[in-house]
Description:
The chain is an alpha+beta fold. It has 2 domains: 8-99, Elongation Factor Tu (Ef-tu), domain 3 (Beta Barrel), CATH 2.40.30.130; 104-249, Threonyl-trna Synthetase, Chain A, domain 2 (Threonyl-tRNA Synthetase, Chain A, domain 2). 21% of the residues lie in helices and 36% in strands. It has 3 helices and 15 strands. The chain has helices at residues 101-123, 150-170, 182-189; strands at residues 8-9, 19-30, 33-38, 40-41, 55-58, 63-71, 77-81, 94-99, 130-136, 139-144, 175-179, 202-206, 214-215, 229-238, 241-249. The strands form 4 sheets. Strands 2-3-7-6-5-8 form a 6-stranded antiparallel barrel. A 4-stranded antiparallel sheet has the order 9-10-15-14, with helices on one face. Helix 1 (101-123) crosses helix 2. It is elongated, with a radius of gyration of 20 Å.
Amino acid sequence: MKIQNNTILNYLNEPEVYSLKANILDIVNENGQYEVETTATPFYVKGGGQPSDIGWLKTDDLSLEVLQVISKADGKIYHVLKDENVTALQIGFEVELIVNHEIRHKHNAIHTAGELICGAIRTLGYQWDVSSAIHYPDNASVEYNVELSELEKIKLKEKLQERLCEHISKGSDVHIATYFDRDSVIQQCGYFPDYVNSDIGIRVVKVLDNVFGRPCKGTHLKNINLLKEVIVRKIKNSKGRLQIKYDTVF
Length: 250
């Protein structure tokens, strides 16, 4: 299947722009649920371990709630709408898309906290590879392809919590950049992520100086000192992996 995204993802280049005007490209009804494709969007699209933004789609006469924004199997981006008044919309209409700023800020903080855990683990001397990460409210975790004994987990929890507090206290700008050649990506990440589509470049996020960044399309805070606290809630072995569960205070 050919992957074709017709929608400009504005947040990638202008993450602090929370509203914009765009034109409707398509309207579909999926089992009674209306979904709208537009020429551009300020919304973060669900994926990469982060939930999508929510907000509103407005015209001069309508204000429709955007429940989530999703990417279809063919790569096209659709805004899932709650309201039945979608039938009043037509292809070609100009609409205003508005992100819920409060929810976006929450997602920024949780994702930045997760990346900070990854960086802090490295500053503690561990060179583990991240196997997966989830940055959802009330269900945030980072997993590694290792297992530890009970005593090792207790010690790691103490050291990691202390190191996170140190990093937040010192602060560090969050750097986001897109790289288009393999050598630059390896220089920034320490490896080349073959699992990422590199046709449009690889976006790398770095939350600590002198620590490798990670491939990431998510949204983030400007500086880690905007986090009040990252709480290491639990560290456990799960299905051959080490899972670090965390909470974010911001």
